[in-house]
Amino acid sequence: MLRLGLVPLLALALGASLGAVLPRDAPKQSCGLAKYRFLAPRELKAVRVMKEQFEDIMLLSNCQCTTRLFHRKWSTAELSVPDRVMLVEAELDLTIAMLGLPTTPGFAQTRQRPLAFLSQAREDLRGCVATETPSHQPSGKLRHWLQKLQVAKRTETTGCLEASTILHLFQVLSDLRCAALREQCP
User: Fold this and answer.
1) pTM score, two decimals?
2) Which end of the chain is less enclosed by CB atoms within 10 A, N or C?
3) Rounded CA separation 30/37 (Å)
4) In order of start, what are the domains of the chain with their CATH numbers?
5) Between 15 and 131, the higher pLDDT residue
6) Is 85 in contact with 133 (CB distance < 8 Å)?
7) What is the C-alpha separation between 113 and 98, in angstroms, rounded?
8) 20 pLDDT exceeds 70?
């Protein structure tokens, strides 16, 4: 029979227990965007209902925007993965800010689910930016769009930004899906 001394036995027990607690070169986790590859039908329906209700409200107002933020000469698929993540983060920041504006009680209720969904997506995306692209510099296309976004925030009315953002919400969701794919996207 094998006899072990007290000190080596304690060292062996301590090593085994620490090994179970401390991670061993675990494979790097994805940044959590995989769940956005295919959006849940209930989330898409909530966004569609909100957009339709907003369009009905908007018929009563006359909003003229000069900046066309969501009309780009390039597609999201042309961007690198880090650029896609940065683009979607900026789009989600704007969208969440616009959905958080005061509004009528009925529309406030309608936009709660899309707002919660988009807020969660932004938090997941921020985890990706922090871990995967901490020092990434945007491409010329993206840098130009980000500058255009900053100008629009300074020069456009809040109503115009809100309308533009809500009316192009499915484009934002498509860009989110594209960023989640991590490879070629449509």
Assistant:
1) 0.78
2) N
3) 13
4) 35-63+79-184 (1.20.1250.60)
5) 131
6) yes
7) 14
8) no
Residue with the two structure tokens 């956005």: 36
With 0-12 / 13-18 / 19 or more C-beta atoms within 10 angstroms meaning exposed / middle / buried, residue 72 is middle
Question: Rounded CA gap, 38 and 73, in Å?
Answer: 26
Question: For residues 66 and 16, what is the distance between their CA atoms, to the nearest angstrom?
Answer: 65
In 3-state terms, what secondary structure has residue 179? Answer: helix
CB proximity list for 82: less than 8 A, separation 6 or greater = 132, 133, 136
Contacts of 142 by beta carbon, 8 Å cutoff, 6+ apart: 79, 83, 86, 87
Buried b (16+ CB within 10 A) or exposed e, 154-164: eebeebbbbbb
* Token pair recorded at residue 64: 């003229």
